[in-house]
Structure formats: C-alpha cells, structure tokens
C-alpha cells in the first residue's frame, strides 16, 4: 500500500487526484459553464429539456449512446485492485527473494504460500474494515448535516458560501444559496457531495464486502507471480533469477496498464508509470534481499 501511495505521490494522474478529492473537481466542472456565461446551454440542460418534452409527448426516450453512459470502471474499485495487486506482487517477492538466500525451493514455496495466505486475509479484512469505517463516517456526517440544515440557517449559509464562493461569481452566488436554503433535501445532498466530498454512491452498505474481496483477490493474483518460478525450477538460485525477470516484467506491465486505466493516453506517460512501478518494486525487493544477506553474514 505504501508502494502505491509513493508512486502516485511521484506521478499523480488526474483520476487519482479526483479520487482523493472528488468534490473539488466535480464542483469546478459543474460551474464552469456558469462562469462562462449563459450564451451556450450545457449538454445536461439540453438532455433534460429533451427528456421532459418526450415525457409530455408520450414518446419513448432514446437510450444514451456509449459515450454518454456511465464509465464501466469504478475509481475506488480500481484503487482497491491496484493496492491489492501491487502489495501482492512486491511483498511475497521480497520475502521469497530473502528466503532464497538461506533456504531451498521448498522452504521458499512454503514461506511464500504462508505469507500469501496471511497477507490475503489481512488485506481483505483491512479493505472491509476501512470501507465500513467510511460508511460509518458518512452516516454520522449525514446526520450532522441534516441537523445543521434544519436548525441553523446561518451556519448552513456559511457552509454554502464557503463551498460555492471559489467557483461562482457574486451575481450567481446569492440566488443559488437562497434556492438551496428553500429546499433542505437538495441542500443536504449538495453539502454532502461538494462540501464534505461524500457522494452517497461511494458509501453503499455492500461496498465494504466488495472492497475487501477486490483487495484480497488482487493480493492473491499478484502474490502467485513471484512464487511460480520456485514451483517449476528446483534449483533455488536459478529460480530466484527467473523470479526476478518474471516479476520485473509483470511489474512493468502492471504499471503500464494501471497508468493507462486511470486515464493516461500518451505512450510517454504510460512508460513513465511503468518504469516508476518497476523501480519502486525493485527497490523493495532489493532492500529485503540485502537485509537478509547482511544478517546472514
């Protein structure tokens, strides 16, 4: 997990920044047209007018095109899979690389499988408990926001002003705040999404189980990769060399695919993400091997 954080800290993508702070980007994009002026209607308003006209006319509403449909990838699930796979790829490799310096292939396999089982359970439980904690925080924040909106108009106005003022001109700020204050459910939803950065779709009750299962599955898939050479090659030193090459290739491909999935389209950007993942994974493995060899001497 620390490896993934360090990689995104070095080379953050727009989608990663959107994931860790979704409200700032959503709010900025929501009111871009407002600051540009009323001359060009937005695509969503055109769609709403078309749907309303079709409803009154009784004609069926056409289904959205693939480009207008919701993305097939959930950003949080991509993050969970990335965390599980990156940890599963680097931690068992570092362990097996260290054990290869002092044991046989059988010792490496048994130690690697033991770590893989324990790590899978630990990562799955961590993802599950983390998602449950987020859901509990969402419920508490929703209750607090509900109380604030219904009992303290002045505090609610201050929260709305704080949220909207960086993105709206003064001429639009006051009417929008007045409108939201007159519609408490809309005001609560707005504050949860844009002030607290907690959209309800990200905190469904079943997300904890899905989140834990995705992280655990990613850890299993990643953890099998560095163990495969030891299961095929009986000479531990040859297996170690094959494991280095195999894991390095998978680290590079994983970094490329992960960078591509989160939104990078240029070959240079994907290559940079792949090389960073390879270097960070290699550093973790090299540190483990070096420590074991140092203790052995």
Write the layout of secondary structure elements.
Elements: H1 2-10, H2 14-20, H3 22-30, H4 32-36, H5 43-57, H6 75-100, H7 105-151, H8 153-164, H9 170-181, H10 184-195, H11 207-232, H12 236-261, H13 267-296
The overall strand count is 0
Q: Spans of 5+ residues with little confidence (pLDDT < 50)? A: 1-26, 28-72
Average pLDDT across residues? 76
Number of helices: 13
The profile of the biggest β sheet is: none
* CA-atom Rg in angstroms: 25 Å
The 3D shape can be described as elongated
Proportion of strand residues: under 5%
Structural class: mainly alpha
Order of helices and strands: HHHHHHHHHHHHH
Distance between the termini: 31 Å
Helix content: over 70%
Summed up, what is this model?
This protein is an all-alpha fold and 297 residues long.
Explain how this protein is built.
By secondary structure, the chain is mainly alpha-helical. 79% of the residues lie in helices and 0% in strands. The chain has 13 helices and no strands. The chain has helices spanning 2-10, 14-20, 22-30, 32-36, 43-57, 75-100, 105-151, 153-164, 170-181, 184-195, 207-232, 236-261, 267-296. Mean pLDDT is 76; it is low at 1-26 and 28-72.
């Amino acid at each position: 997990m620390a490896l993934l954080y360090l990689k995104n800290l070095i080379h953050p993508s727009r989608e990663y920044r959107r994931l860790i702070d979704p409200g700032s980007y959503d709010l900025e994009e929501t009111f871009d047209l407002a600051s540009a002026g009323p001359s060009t209607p937005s695509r969503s308003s055109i769609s709403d007018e078309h749907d309303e006209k079709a409803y009154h006319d009784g004609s069926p509403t056409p289904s959205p095109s693939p480009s207008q449909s919701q993305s097939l990838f959930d950003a949080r699930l991509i993050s969970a899979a990335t965390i599980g796979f990156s940890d599963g790829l680097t931690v068992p490799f570092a362990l097996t690389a260290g054990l290869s310096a002092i044991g046989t292939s059988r010792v490496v396999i048994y130690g690697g499988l033991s770590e893989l089982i324990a790590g899978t359970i630990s990562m799955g439980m961590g993802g599950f408990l983390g998602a449950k904690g987020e859901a509990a925080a969402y419920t508490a924040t929703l209750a607090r926001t509900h109380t604030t909106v219904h009992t303290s108009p002045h505090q609610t106005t201050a929260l709305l002003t704080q949220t909207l003022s960086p993105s709206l001109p003064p001429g639009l700020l006051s009417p929008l705040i007045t409108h939201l204050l007159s519609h408490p459910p809309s005001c609560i939803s707005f504050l949860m999404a844009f002030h607290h950065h907690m959209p309800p779709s990200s905190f469904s009750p079943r997300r904890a189980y899905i989140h834990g299962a995705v992280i655990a599955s990613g850890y299993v898939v990643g953890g099998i990769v560095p163990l495969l050479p030891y299961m095929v090659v009986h000479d531990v030193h040859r297996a170690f060399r094959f494991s280095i090459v195999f894991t390095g290739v998978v680290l590079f491909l994983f970094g490329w695919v992960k960078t591509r999935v989160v939104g990078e389209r240029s070959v240079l950007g994907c290559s940079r993400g792949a090389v960073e993942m390879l270097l960070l994974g290699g550093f973790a493995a090299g540190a483990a091997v070096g420590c074991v060899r140092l203790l052995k001497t």
